[in-house]
Design brief:
The chain is mainly α. The chain contains eight helices and no strands.
Length: 286
């Protein structure tokens, strides 16, 4: 009962917002937080490269780490809200189309058979299942975002990467499932921008998928080739004192290190994926 009460509360809060406000707020807030965190880490603290740094590395040390955690915490709230609003919207559309087809079959304007009614019911159940799975993926992506912000790579590297995988995998799965589930609705409703929306969603999925492949593949290759040829300065030794020696700064690569080029391009892939996910979420305002 307690869990149900929490879900009803979140649901009620979600209904108090116009659907277009959530994606706009999510993208605007997260983009601002990323820019502020990047500026602090790259130019004020000088602990990351200003050229395509790893997003996680912009939250290595305070005050940038505080902005990083706060930004991801708010992002998680937005993701949960967006997931619930989209879930309820899709649920209403599924039920409406089911009743419309059912009434046509019963009134004799369509195929009158119990098999047709059963087939329609099965299709409805399938769509509801995909819709619930979308909701679960959205919530898990939010949990992953909270974990990424809470367990920063400087001090909890493996927990940070674990939650990063949870966030990325569930966020991408949510995008794929929603694109598939909404395709038929757009066709049946004769939505005037159905082709544009579908092509836009597929484009963001392809772009994000390419970015993820670059990120994971080049990160692994770069880690295999990694060799700290650039020695640490005295200031860096003091800054990274929690590590055994200079060779442990594998999350703050410098030009000249082995695998540095792979690391930079893997970061480009990460920024591309994030940008495509922002675009996908932003389209919900329509």
């Amino acid at each position: 009962m307690k869990l149900l009460g929490v879900l009803e509360l979140i649901d009620a809060v979600g209904n108090s917002y116009h659907p277009s406000r959530l994606p706009i707020g999510f993208v605007a807030f997260c983009t601002t937080g990323l820019v502020v965190g990047y500026a602090l880490a790259a130019f004020l603290q000088n602990d990351v490269s200003p050229i395509f740094p790893r997003i996680s590395h912009t939250g290595n040390f305070p005050p940038a780490s505080m902005v990083f955690s706060f930004n991801l915490g708010i992002a998680a709230i937005f993701l949960v809200q967006i997931s619930f609003v989209v879930f309820k919207s899709m649920k209403r559309i599924i039920n409406y189309q089911h009743q419309e087809v059912k009434s046509q079959l019963i009134n004799g304007t369509g195929l009158e058979s119990s098999e047709a009614l059963m087939e329609n019911q099965l299709k409805q159940n399938r769509k509801h299942s995909i819709n619930r799975l979308c909701l679960c993926c959205g919530i898990l992506a939010a949990v992953g975002a909270l974990g990424v912000g809470a367990f920063q790579v400087t001090y909890s590297k493996w927990l940070h990467y674990l939650f990063l995988v949870i966030m990325v995998v569930n966020g991408y799965t949510y995008s794929v499932l929603h694109t598939v589930n909404s395709r038929n609705f757009l066709k049946k409703m004769n939505y005037p921008k159905q082709d544009y929306l579908f092509k836009f969603r597929v484009s963001t999925l392809v772009t994000g998928g390419v970015g993820l492949i670059f990120m994971f593949t080049l990160t692994i290759i770069g880690a295999m080739k990694w060799d700290p040829l650039v020695s640490c300065t005295e200031d860096e030794k003091a800054q990274w004192q929690s590590f055994k020696n200079c060779s442990e700064r594998n999350h703050n690569w410098k030009q000249g290190d082995g695998g540095f080029t792979h690391f930079v391009f893997s970061n480009v892939g990460q920024w591309i994926w994030l940008g495509s996910f922002f675009c996908f979420c932003f389209h919900h305002k329509k």
